[in-house]
Write a structure and sequence with these properties.
With 232 residues, the protein is α+β, with helices and mostly antiparallel strands. Helices cover 19% and strands 29% of the residues.
Length: 232
C-alpha cells in the first residue's frame, strides 16, 4: 500500500496532508525516512513525528451540529467544538469539511482520511444541500445569478441548484445545492444579491440526510451509508 494511503487509513490525515508530512521528513518506515510514493508492507513499522501508527478500524458518525460550535478538534479561543458533542473515548475522529459557528446541520466525523478527502476536495464535486432563510420576499428569478455562478472574493462560484420552498412578506426559505466548500460561501452568495442569511442548515450530503436527528445528536453511519459516501 502506498505510504500516503496507509497513513490516511490509519486516521493520521487526508492523503494530501500525509504527503506534506512525508515531504517534511516526519514519517519513517522501519527507522528510515520515507519518501512520497513509498510502499508499506505487512510487518513494516511506521512512525509519524516519532509516534507509531497502525491500521485501525475506521469510525464513521453523522452529527446534527447546533449553532455555537465550531468544526474543529480544538479551538485556541476556547469555543466549543463538535467533538464536545461526541462520547468520551470515541477516538481520533475529525470533522469532514466545515459549517461555520452560526450555522447548523449535517456533519460527518470519521477517522477515514481518504473519505474526508473525497467529500471535501472540489474536484470530486460532491453535492451538499442547505436550507437557507433570508428576510423578506424573494423571487425565483432573483436566484438566477446564484444558479449561474456569482462573483465572491474575486472568483466566480460554480453553477448550482436553488429553488424557493417557502416565502411570505417576512422571510423566504430556499434549498440550495452546491459542489464547492469555500469559506462562508452560501452566505456570501446571498449577500452578493443583497440578502442576508439569517438561518443556514446543511440538510444533505449527496442523498444522505439527517433522518430525524435532533440538534446536537449523533449516531454511527450504517455500512450502506458508508458505502454510499465512498461511491460519491
Amino acid at each position: 500500500m502506498r505510504i500516503n494511503k496507509f497513513l490516511a487509513a490509519c486516521g493520521v490525515a487526508s492523503r494530501r496532508e500525509c504527503d506534506k508530512l512525508i515531504s517534511d521528513g516526519k514519517v519513517t518506515v522501519n527507522s528510515k525516512v520515507a519518501s512520497v510514493g513509498h510502499e508499506v508492507f505487512e510487518g513494516d513499522e511506521v512512525f509519524v513525528c516519532g509516534k507509531k501508527v497502525s491500521l485501525q478500524k475506521n469510525e464513521y458518525y453523522i452529527l446534527n451540529k447546533p449553532k455555537g460550535y465550531i468544526c474543529a478538534v480544538t479551538d485556541d479561543r476556547g469555543r466549543k467544538t463538535v467533538l464536545d458533542l461526541m462520547p468520551a473515548g470515541v477516538g481520533r475522529i475529525y470533522p469532514v469539511g466545515r459549517l461555520d459557528y452560526d450555522s447548523e446541520g449535517l456533519i460527518i466525523l470519521t477517522t477515514d482520511g481518504e473519505l474526508a478527502q473525497k467529500l471535501t476536495h472540489p474536484s470530486h464535486e460532491v453535492p451538499k444541500t442547505y436550507l437557507v432563510k433570508v428576510e423578506g420576499t424573494l423571487t425565483e428569478a432573483a436566484l438566477n445569478p446564484i444558479r449561474s455562478g456569482i462573483e465572491i472574493d474575486g472568483s466566480v462560484t460554480k453553477k448550482c441548484k436553488a429553488h424557493i420552498v417557502e416565502t411570505n412578506k417576512s422571510y423566504t426559505k430556499i434549498h440550495i445545492t452546491i459542489t464547492e466548500g469555500k469559506n462562508r460561501e452560501v452566505r456570501k452568495m446571498f449577500a452578493a444579491i443583497g440578502k442576508e442569511v439569517v438561518f443556514l442548515k446543511r440538510i444533505k450530503i449527496g442523498e444522505l440526510g439527517l433522518r430525524g436527528l435532533d440538534r446536537g445528536a449523533y449516531r454511527k453511519l450504517t455500512r450502506e451509508e458508508i458505502d454510499y459516501l465512498q461511491s460519491l
